[in-house]
User: What shape does this take?
Amino acid sequence: MSSDKLYGIIVAGVGGQGAITLAQLFLGAAWRSRLHTMQSEVHGMSQRGGSVNAQISISKAEVTAPLLLSGAVDLLISMEPLEALRYVPFLSKNATIITSTEPTINMDNYPDINLILGALREIPGTILVDTAEHAKKLANKNAGNMVLLGVASNYTPIDKTIWHTIIEERFASKGEKVVVKNIEAFDIGKKIIAPSS
Amino acid sequence: MSKNAKNESLLLGDEAVGFAAIDAGLTGIFGYPGTPSTEVFEAVEAEFKKNGVANRVARWAANEKVGYEFALGCSYIGKRSMVTMKHVGLNVAMDPFVNSAITGVNGGLVVVVADDPGMHSSQNEQDSRYLADFANLPCLEPSTPQEAYDFTTYAFELSEKLRLPVLLRLVTRLAHTRGVVARQEMKEPTDLGIPNSESRFNWVLIPSNARLQYQRLRDNFGQLLEAADDFNKFKKGDRRGVVVSGMGKANFDQLCKEEATISKFSKLEVMAYPLNDSLIDKMLESCDEIYIFEENYPYIEDKFIAKTRQTKIRGRRDGTLNIAGELDPGVLRQALKLSMPEKKKGPTIDLPARPPRMCDGCGHIDAYNAMKEAFNIIGVSDPRVFGDIGCYTLGAQPPFEGIDTCVEMGASLGMALGAAMSGQVPSVGVIGDSTFFHSGLPTLISLVESKVNANFVIMDNRITAMTGQQEVVATDIIPQLAQAAGLLPEQVHILTPLPKKHEENVKKLVEIFKNNRPDLIIFKRDCIQAMRKGLYAKINEEKKAGGHGHE
Assistant: This one.
């Protein structure tokens, strides 16, 4: 995010995966960085296991529109590979895609996962993150989202210490152990920078 | 999220409205849950729980009409009140809404209505501005979370100044957008006292009073225009012009940062209604061509079309924008013939949709499975079941295809009984407990006397599940209600929708469907989401204390 141009992020996932929580962390981090920001989200029925997305705008200038321009989105973070593919048409030519490789199969006609991952690998600027593996290694079944956030933080103009503060604030009510575990996962994600194709 | 020194915090549009109401000295907030309006009430309720509720009240009502009446009663005794609902909820509350314009109000009354352009979670995308117009009431339309806060603050003052309810119109994208909002200092609840001897009879709408009051409402229209004029801004620029309101304004302002040409347009910002004709005239005089971006019916647009001589009006009527659906930056770019960005090349494989679905282990699934098999056994190969609004509406989809209609709150029961009286055998209507208390109760009374094979199925999970598990006005009283209304104990059946009870439930349903009389079937099992969140503890505690589950 070099110029005054608005930086657009979509967080995608399946209802219940925590896409909105992740989007709120972006919003808080951008605000804490004294940037202008706005974030729109979906509530209600679509959260029942359906496709969900939240959009975040970050800018050095004032932001007024809640929705991003389709085709101009700079960064996609998806908690689910099929959902990542679904939001590709919203992305700009040079956008980065950061997606979990772990499928959520709550439908009868879920395509072959290898087909999905293959299609993602063909798209330039895609970073596949094996969130299941990270969760296992960290013995933290909720680590995936924080790892994805860590990866994504490399593409935003937000300082690492701010991210740590935001994570701390958000999860403080769940106890210090949760905070420490989440920061650990975030830091691992932050080290992932190159496409893992 | 924590606050900073300027008393700023990150709030949803809905939350901004709720906090503004508290800060403005609100006494009572009432309403019925409905996406995207629910979080207005919830924000206030959460604050009251955190900070104590001395002299303040937040209470869900059985439906929007009752919620409106609660607010009107609060206003009558001189306190500031708010009632919240989604757009279709205002249809339910139309009677008190229109008539409270005739009585006028005492304490400030703000009616928050959240419209749903694009129908994200609604059955239509009706535009509440027409209803404010119809009732001769002022309407404010914010476009950002900060405006949502500021306009709410002002709405209470305006309501008390004009002595009228003020409609605050939100749309989904504002209701569910988070942004930075600066709050003012919180006021203690205000109190104007009960209506004095002069205004006492304004509230008694017998014809002799109503005529006077209605005339007064019409005569005061100038005051409404003046109040709206303070909000609506005209700026002369190019011979090309734009009229923006709500999300039209939010999207256009954003676009101006990227496109220098359009920022030179003549511009009318509409943030309050009624819209003064003189502003329309100024725009028409200043422009050869005017684009109108409003959410979502062509309300302002039609006023321009009615008055224009030469100026071309570009909007939803001439096809510049689609007549239906919500605005977004792409829609505006296309309308203004601006360049579109170069997109990333997408995947070439077909992606199956992932619609919302009922949760694994949800009792509705077992209820639908049992009904399906029962129909099969009695030889109805293509059953048509009347449905309603709630999580169980998801049962319309495969593999269940358990309901065939979803029209409006309570329609399942009325339609099932109407069909039964007109020859449908057996006729079945499916409704949730919260929807039943909202609009199904009167139909239950009609069921008793009908003597036809109409079967009302209540999916009773003791909570308003779909909108986020709000408390229902009452729990566990439906069998007693039915019997008090005149159904015999053998006409009231309580079934447990669990896989292990499947055979038993099917057998019972077959018996009921074959029986040529009205029956009430209650599929009773708690919502698994609400159970996981521990939400039943409070309800059960209240029951133990001898209440009916309502506070």
Observations:
- The first strand of chain B starts at residue 8 and ends at 12.
